[in-house]
Amino acid sequence: MTKSPSLKPTRTAHLIRELTAAEEDFPAQRWHQQIRWALAGLNTQAIRVRSGEISEIAPEALLLHFEAFHRGIAVGLSLHPRAPGRKQTPARNLLERLRDQAHAVLRFADAPRHVPFTNNCGERALRPVKTQLKISGCHQSADGAMAWLAVRSYLDSARKHGLSAFEAIHRAFTGNLWMPPITQTT
Question: How far apart are CA 31 and CA 16, in angstroms?
Fold first, then answer.
């Protein structure tokens, strides 16, 4: 698998929830458990890479989990054949998405240091924006929206680096603006 910058971050946590729902709908089937097992196993290995415990996911671990992932999809597709017409069952849609977007779903295992298992962190960062828009309906001007987003971004980045929102705002107003550390990636 190759890393492609055009792909959006994976929503693996959402897929896990959809697989759990499929298990509730089809408890006698095992394909959903196999796919979840494969994703969880790869995530465990990716966490070990990010923590520095191992330098990379072993090729045999990748192969084991990738095969389990793809076999689970194949079994699921055989149990949920395509219906005539456009409308398919949720299980079929999930399985086709997993099959067709496998490169994006499994990208976190291809580049465990750079691609997270899920994009929930990014979604949490956007949640206040959506809440603000729901409450006010919109921002009064483009300049006001840009200023609000700049403050949100500054506070979110500071929080991720262990600085409280109060401390970050205090530093900004006293002329001691906090800036994130600059790191070089290799």
Answer: 13
Radius of gyration of the chain measured on its C-alpha atoms: 21
- pLDDT band at 123; cut points 50, 70, 90: low
Structure tokens at 69: 């992932």
Nearest-10 Cα torsion for 109, 113, 119, 124: 160
Contact partners, residue 162, CB within 8 Å, separation at least 6: none
Judge contact between 107 and 10, C-beta under 8 A: yes
User: Which two tokens mark 130?
Assistant: 């959506």
pLDDT digits (tens, 9 = 90+) for 151-162: 888 888 888 888
User: What residue type is 62 in one-letter code?
Assistant: L
Does the predicted model carry a pTM greater than 0.90?
no
